[in-house]
């Protein structure tokens, strides 16, 4: 009987303390693991919320401009020239809204879901050569010196030519936008071990070191007023980064305020 009583006491002790402690440990572990599992969804939700808020904020100002100009233009015309200016303002603002909407659509459409199938090997040299011609034609209008240093031999990799083109266009457009007249913009392409390296160098206004960690964030602009004047929404670099990362590449920047910037894209030479 004694040994039975000891056994029963031990079972009662276990039921009184052991079971609640076990359930407690299971509960805490479950809560911790649940939180861990939820973290990516929570982050994605917060990003989506931020993205929607930023996009709405960017669209609010141009919509207000269009509305106020249209309302005044609808009044009995006093000066036809003024009315024409208002209509021109509406067209200009609508164009910039259209650019913003296209960029937003691009980001959401290509968010982690680039079509992998049907990708053909493309010659990076050929893509950049045609881009270089386009930008060389634009340079004199801005009194810029533009030079492209591309190898003679093809550099092949498997990617969507139009998307790669878009990434480099965004970098070149920025170099042109943020380099004052008589400045220099260069486009380089070379291979380094198993990577194709594209560099866009300018000796323009440069980027403050405190802004460098953020410039690839969506809607980030170093100087909102300056970027607004040049028509930028702070999406160009985010788009370039999204494209490059999708192909397993990396985009980096080196910049000195007042001296210029070098943006570099490295893409793995996979076929
Ligand atoms: P934006 O459309 O405003 O140019 P981006 O995403 O392309 O947006 O660039 C983000 C910010 O980085 C820009 O607002 C600009 O201040 C800065 N930036 C980008 N490229 C350059 C450059 N080559 N020289 C100086 N500043 C640059």
UniProtKB/TrEMBL annotation:
CDD domains in UniProt: HATPase, HisKA
Catalysed transformations (reactions): ATP + protein L-histidine = ADP + protein N-phospho-L-histidine
Domain spans labelled Histidine kinase: 54-271
EC id: 2.7.13.3
Chain ranges passing through the membrane: 12-33
Record-linked InterPro entries: HATPase_C_sf, HATPase_dom, His_kinase_dom, HisK_dim/P_dom, HisK_dim/P_sf, Sig_transdc_His_kin-like_C
GO molecular function: phosphorelay sensor kinase activity
Swiss-Prot/TrEMBL keywords: Kinase, Membrane, Phosphoprotein, Transferase, Transmembrane, Transmembrane helix, Two-component regulatory system
UniProt xrefs under Pfam families: HATPase_c, HisKA
Entry keyword annotation includes Endoplasmic reticulum: no
Source organism, top-level taxon: Bacteria
Physiological role: Photoreceptor which exists in two forms that are reversibly interconvertible by light: the R form that absorbs maximally in the red region of the spectrum and the FR form that absorbs maximally in the far-red region.
UniProt protein name: histidine kinase
Biological classification of the source: Bacteria, Bacillati, Cyanobacteriota, Cyanophyceae, Nostocales
């Amino acid at each position: 009987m004694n040994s039975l009583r000891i056994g029963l006491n031990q079972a009662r002790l276990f039921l009184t303390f052991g079971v609640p402690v076990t359930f407690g440990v299971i509960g805490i572990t479950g809560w911790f693991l649940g939180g861990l599992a939820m973290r990516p969804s929570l982050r994605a939700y917060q990003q989506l919320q931020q993205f929607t808020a930023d996009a709405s904020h960017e669209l609010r100002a141009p919509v207000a401009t269009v509305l106020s100009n249209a309302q005044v233009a609808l009044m009995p015309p006093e000066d036809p020239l003024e009315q024409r200016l208002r209509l021109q303002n509406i067209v200009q603002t609508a164009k910039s809204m259209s650019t913003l909407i296209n960029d937003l659509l691009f980001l959401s459409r290509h968010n982690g879901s680039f079509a992998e199938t049907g990708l053909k090997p493309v010659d990076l040299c050929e893509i950049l050569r045609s881009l270089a011609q386009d930008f060389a034609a634009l340079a004199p209008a801005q009194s810029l010196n533009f030079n492209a240093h591309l190898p003679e031999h093809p550099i092949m990799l498997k990617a969507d030519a139009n998307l790669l083109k878009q990434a480099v266009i965004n970098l070149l457009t920025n170099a042109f936008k943020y380099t004052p007249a008589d400045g220099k913009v260069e486009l380089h392409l070379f291979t380094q071990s198993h990577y194709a390296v594209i560099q866009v160098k300018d000796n323009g206004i440069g980027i403050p070191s405190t802004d460098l960690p953020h410039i690839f964030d969506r809607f980030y602009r170093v100087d909102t007023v300056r970027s607004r004047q040049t028509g930028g929404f702070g999406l160009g670099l985010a788009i370039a980064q999204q494209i490059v990362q999708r192909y397993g590449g990396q985009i980096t920047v080196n910049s000195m305020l007042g001296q210029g910037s070098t943006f570099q894209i490295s893409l793995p030479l996979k076929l």
